[in-house]
């Protein structure tokens, strides 16, 4: 019998304000990388709730997803892991000043598309830029495309 493929399901928040995107600088695999606020889906959690939770934990920003930008697959060869990423855009609903961020987070950045592109070597994965490009191209899918169990 062959092994069953089990992707690692993640969510990412595309948070844009005045042409700048909120990115986290974090330690991953022994190096500093840039990524959208993102993380893994917890058992029993909806994709939308996971995205809001990850944004809060990594940035202290309260984020309300309003649309799905895209679903992405990426294989991380060094660990033979395939990620299935659900990227959302939405609105900020405030900041919890003084909230402790996840321990991997070093700092936050608000970067333009051009600034982010210039730092491509620091991206955690190729999905970082791809999600921004899709967002800027106007890709939006209503949350209703996700079944109730996933939204």
Task: Describe this structure in a few short sentences.
The protein has 3 helices and 9 strands, in the order βββββαβββααβ.
Notes on the structure:
The chain is of the alpha+beta class. The chain has a single domain, classed as Alpha-Beta Complex (Nucleoside Triphosphate Pyrophosphohydrolase). Helix content is 19%, strand content 44%. The protein contains 3 helices and 9 strands; from the N terminus they run βββββαβββααβ. It has helices spanning 47-59, 113-118, 127-136, and strands at 8-14, 16-17, 20-28, 31-35, 38-40, 61-76, 81-95, 105-111, 141-142. The strands form 2 sheets. Strands 5-1-7-6-9 form a 5-stranded mixed beta sheet, with helices on both faces. Strands 2, 3, 4 and 8 form a 4-stranded antiparallel beta sheet that branches. A hairpin with a 4-residue loop joins β6 and β7 (81-95). The termini are far apart. The mean pLDDT is 94.
Question: What labels would you give this structure?
Answer:
five-stranded mixed β-sheet, alpha+beta, Nucleoside Triphosphate Pyrophosphohydrolase, 3 helices
Low-confidence stretches: none
Taking all Cα atoms into account, the compactness measure Rg is 15 Å
Give the DSSP E fraction (strand runs of 2 or more residues): 35-45%
**Domain count:** 1
Strands, helices and their partners?
Blueprint: E1 8-14, E2 16-17, E3 20-28, E4 31-35, E5 38-40, H1 47-59, E6 61-76, E7 81-95, E8 105-111, H2 113-118, H3 127-136, E9 141-142
Parallel strand pairs: 1-7
Antiparallel strand pairs: 1-5, 2-3, 3-4, 3-8, 6-7, 6-9
């Amino acid at each position: 019998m062959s092994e069953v493929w089990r992707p690692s399901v993640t969510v990412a928040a595309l948070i844009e304000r005045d042409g700048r995107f909120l990115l986290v600088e974090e330690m991953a695999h022994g190096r500093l990388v840039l990524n959208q606020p993102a993380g893994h889906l917890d058992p029993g959690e909806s994709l939308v709730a996971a995205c809001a939770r990850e944004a809060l934990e990594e940035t202290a920003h309260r984020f309300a997803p309003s649309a799905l930008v895209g679903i992405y697959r990426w294989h991380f060869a060094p660990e033979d892991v395939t990620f299935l990423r659900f990227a959302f855009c939405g609105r900020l609903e405030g900041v919890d000043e003084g909230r402790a961020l996840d321990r991997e987070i070093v700092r936050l950045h608000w970067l333009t598309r051009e600034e982010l592109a210039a730092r491509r070597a620091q991206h955690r994965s190729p999905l970082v830029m791809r999600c921004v490009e899709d967002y800027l191209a106007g890709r939006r899918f209503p949350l209703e495309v996700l079944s109730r169990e996933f939204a």
